[in-house]
Amino acid sequence: MASMEKRLQKELQALLRDPPLGVTVDSDKTSRSLSEWTVDLEGAPGTLYQGEKFQLAFKFGPRYPFESPQVIFTGSNIPVHPHVYSNGHICLSILTDDWSPALSVQSVCLSIVSMLSSCKEKKRPPDNSIYVKTCSKNPKNTKWWYHDDTV
Amino acid sequence: MVLCFMFTWPCVSFYLGWTAVATWKWIANDDNCGICRMPFDGCCPDCKLPGDDCPLVWGQCSHCFHIHCIVKWLNSQQINQLCPMCRQEWKFKE
């Protein structure tokens, strides 16, 4: 088994055994090669997203965990948030420049829940319409500018 | 009167040698490598046998990884070479 699959196998077992609050791996939609996962997220209680359900699609390349996974929101409910484009792309530095192999599916999910939780006003990014029209399918090909650490 | 005789056969064992059993353990501040998530007592996913062929290394920040894991990570970083755990500049502990 490739080292990427070994690590993903461990992560999957840990997440199924002991999932953090509001994070559920859809093991039926997780591919047999483990290279694509679907994770269900719930908006945290006491935040603007309380009671909402979201879905994240993870894609792992053969160099994972030395290379970040591709992570986008998918499904019918894309959160309205200043760092989430309406096509599901997420502007979050740990998904590109600040990736570390010590991060994991679990820590990425928790970062995204936390990013949603600190939001004070539900709105799309200011450049949403132009971005969605012109971006690559893979958000990792986007050269992101990370300029707002408050949300 | 019935006399009962009990015979006991000598029981002789031959010990032809002895086998020593020992365990070993890396002394690290965690149980698993933060990069591959394999136990430190095991080896990285690219190796077959734990031990001297798949040693651990420490950074000056005190974080510890399989040498193969951290070298793979450092080689994949062109600009800054940071510790995966604490993001301080990675320097091998002398």
UniProtKB/TrEMBL annotation, chain A:
One of its GO terms (molecular function) is ubiquitin conjugating enzyme activity. InterPro entries: Ub_conjugating_enzyme, UBC, UBQ-conjugating_enzyme/RWD. The keyword Membrane does not apply. It catalyses: S-ubiquitinyl-[E1 ubiquitin-activating enzyme]-L-cysteine + [acceptor protein]-N-terminal-amino acid = [E1 ubiquitin-activating enzyme]-L-cysteine + N-terminal-ubiquitinyl-[acceptor protein]; S-ubiquitinyl-[E1 ubiquitin-activating enzyme]-L-cysteine + [E2 ubiquitin-conjugating enzyme]-L-cysteine = [E1 ubiquitin-activating enzyme]-L-cysteine + S-ubiquitinyl-[E2 ubiquitin-conjugating enzyme]-L-cysteine. GO terms for biological process: protein ubiquitination. Keywords: Transferase, Ubl conjugation pathway. Residues 3-151 form the UBC core domain. It is an enzyme of class 2 (transferase). Its EC number is 2.3.2.23, 2.3.2.25. This is N-terminal E2 ubiquitin-conjugating enzyme. It comes from Lingula anatina. The lineage of its organism: Eukaryota, Metazoa, Spiralia, Lophotrochozoa, Brachiopoda.
TrEMBL record, chain B:
The keyword rRNA-binding does not apply. Together with the cullin protein ANAPC2, constitutes the catalytic component of the anaphase promoting complex/cyclosome (APC/C), a cell cycle-regulated E3 ubiquitin ligase that controls progression through mitosis and the G1 phase of the cell cycle. The APC/C complex acts by mediating ubiquitination and subsequent degradation of target proteins: it mainly mediates the formation of 'Lys-11'-linked polyubiquitin chains and, to a lower extent, the formation of 'Lys-48'- and 'Lys-63'-linked polyubiquitin chains. Pathway: Protein modification; protein ubiquitination. Keywords: Cell cycle, Cell division, Metal-binding, Mitosis, Nucleus, Ubl conjugation pathway, Zinc, Zinc-finger. InterPro entries: RING-box_E3_Ubiquitin_Ligase (IPR051031), RING-H2_APC11 (IPR024991), Znf_RING (IPR001841), Znf_RING/FYVE/PHD (IPR013083). One of its GO terms (molecular function) is ubiquitin protein ligase activity. GO terms for biological process: anaphase-promoting complex-dependent catabolic process; cell division. One of its GO terms (cellular component) is anaphase-promoting complex. The keyword Cell division applies. Pfam families: zf-ANAPC11. The mammalian APC/C is composed at least of 14 distinct subunits ANAPC1, ANAPC2, CDC27/APC3, ANAPC4, ANAPC5, CDC16/APC6, ANAPC7, CDC23/APC8, ANAPC10, ANAPC11, CDC26/APC12, ANAPC13, ANAPC15 and ANAPC16 that assemble into a complex of at least 19 chains with a combined molecular mass of around 1.2 MDa; APC/C interacts with FZR1 and FBXO5. Interacts with the cullin domain of ANAPC2. Interacts with UBE2D2. The lineage of its organism: Eukaryota, Metazoa, Spiralia, Lophotrochozoa, Brachiopoda. Residues 44-87 form the RING-type domain. It comes from Lingula anatina. Belongs to the RING-box family. This is Anaphase-promoting complex subunit 11. It is found in: Nucleus. CDD domains: RING-H2_APC11 (cd16456). Its main location: nucleus.
